[in-house]
Amino acid sequence: MQRLQDFRFELMPNDQQERQMCRFAGACRFVYNKALALQKQRYEQGEKKLGYIELCKLLTEWRKSTEMAWLSRVPIHLLQQELKDLERACANFFARHTDFPKFKKKTRLNSFCYPDPKQIKLDQTNSRIFLPRLGWLRYHNSQEVSGDLRNVTVSLSDGKWFISIQTEREVEPSIPKGNREVEPSIPKGNAVGGDLGVARFATLPDGSFYTSLLNSFSQHETALRKAQKSLRKAQKSLKRKVNSSNNWKEAKVKVHKIYARIANIRRELLRKTSIGTDEIDRVLARHYGFTEDELDFIIKYDIKYRDIRYRDIRYRDIKYRMGGDTAEEAE
Q1: Are 295 and 282 in contact (CB under 8 A)?
Q2: What would the DSSP string read from start to end of 119-132?
Q3: In terms of pTM, does the model score above 0.90?
């Protein structure tokens, strides 16, 4: 069975690359809105919508015109992908699956997609990726990308650039528990139902439960309360600013960043709760080259990921703590 999976990383572009990405995102938004305005006009007049091929011919004329010659400095694949997205949105509308497509705003949906994997080069060893017209971009390599490249999407969220790498790989099909046709050699699924609530974060069928984020004494609860306190101050400051002024825009950006921080806290709690903190520590420690015995030691003495990464706990330190050679001899 073929599985499509996305791997999302934070980019670390330089000033020139960041300006170029802003131009690409603006050009893609302009082409999408211009084509959508044309489709909307034809729809209101009762005419047939334009297909993808016809829109591509118009795109060629726009790139060759004097008024929109700046579109020629943007890779053609990015603009064509926007037309494909619009064609899919219009098809869903006429099939009565969704509402009529909406125009893209400058403050939202700043993204562009590279659909051709042949133009993309991924160097996971050096934590960098090559994109046309942008060159090599470094990113925070937090996980290993597995599978064959399909496409790459670059997006702007709360002042930071992110890259989403979509891959395709072959996996074994998952078989639900209780299926009578399951072969004995294939283990049955281990799915567990849960009830999400307010007083309790999640309750499992066996009676065990996870406390709510605001009722626990974990690092997530402390970080969330601190972020909510900063959010209240930032919102009060935003309310006192003159609407659409420069100070108002700066305060609005600050509020958006705090909202993004709160979303990251909740997302981390959900991830750690769903797959278990010990399993996450094992995955992260394995990324730094520890063996299975050393992983058991890390879990037993509750050595966190931040200790492994930021306090420079290396192999010689783990070996010394496990009763082996001293730290000086391990060097």
Answers
A1: yes
A2: G-EEETTTTEEEET
A3: no
